[in-house]
């Protein structure tokens, strides 16, 4: 939304000697632009030359007694007989009652691209015509206190903002990934996982050793059914040391059925306490 500089005044319909038309775009001017005290037409016009051809996205207008305003646009390269195109249709700055009573003369209106006519808002212009009117009170001088014109929002700024947002999202994702890695590599978590793996591996080693040491087992058939009763009791005791979250709050007992087979029986602690 860069300001569009007004280069000079091309023409105007009327002005008061003390309140000239340049006042509306001079930043250091403390006076408004008013029509001549002898002008009772109720219409005030000015054609302005912009510093360069630009798209117009915003127009800020400071009122000084005008009831209605209209903004037209054109190009300096056009022939004089080519009419300007309407950018801002006639808009109200004061009501008829306010105009007759002379109240609320110094309001401010801020117009944006959505307020402009579609056939002109997307084009480039270097001429602006402002038309003020006061049909309800032709005995009091009227005009404008200031006029500010700005370009639309810069697309490059929007693109830069989007890229910045993407970078921030990637950075956030990397931070989350790093936090997860730090958590997984923490000593407490590693101790839990490594402990479970070591217990499992230890049980498998115990089973293999028992199969190889038991003289009653068949070397070609690595099955627990061929272990002796003593070997099966040792293996069952080793397996009972593995942590089992689903069986928390239980006690394990090694039992033997009527056929002499060894099995592991779990009983809830609450039942034992009774």
Automatic annotation (TrEMBL):
SUPFAM superfamilies: Galactose-binding domain-like. One of its GO terms (cellular component) is nucleus. Residues 169-179 have a biased composition (Basic and acidic residues). InterPro entries: Galactose-bd-like_sf, Xrcc1_N. This is XRCC1 N-terminal domain containing 1, N-terminal like. It comes from the Eukaryota. One of its GO terms (molecular function) is damaged DNA binding. One of its GO terms (biological process) is base-excision repair. Residues 1-149 form the DNA-repair protein Xrcc1 N-terminal domain. Residues 153-179 are annotated as: Disordered. Coiled coil: none annotated.
